[in-house]
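User: For my dataset I need records formatted as: sequence, then structure tokens, nothing else. Please produce one.
Assistant:
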Amino acid sequence: MTDLSFSIGSLLDPSPPSQPLRSEVPRRPVEDYRHSVRVQKRASLVQKRQSNVLKLSQENDKLKEELRAMTERLEAAERRRQDVESRGKLQSQG
């Protein structure tokens, strides 16, 4: 039979408990392996996400550059259209 009695002094005693805490209990090799596998999977997912973010960032930069070039061409075409239009008005007046 286990003795479940205790004293107030034992509750107030700052010394460490006689049994290790759960985190201090050494893991078995199978638990170590499972933990290692989980850590590796998590690291793999993080690396994959980083790679995806990098690819998306590069694609975003490329699309921004294409948009800038298209905007410049559109503005140049609009300037040419206005120039042709103003020349046509001058010729019709003269």
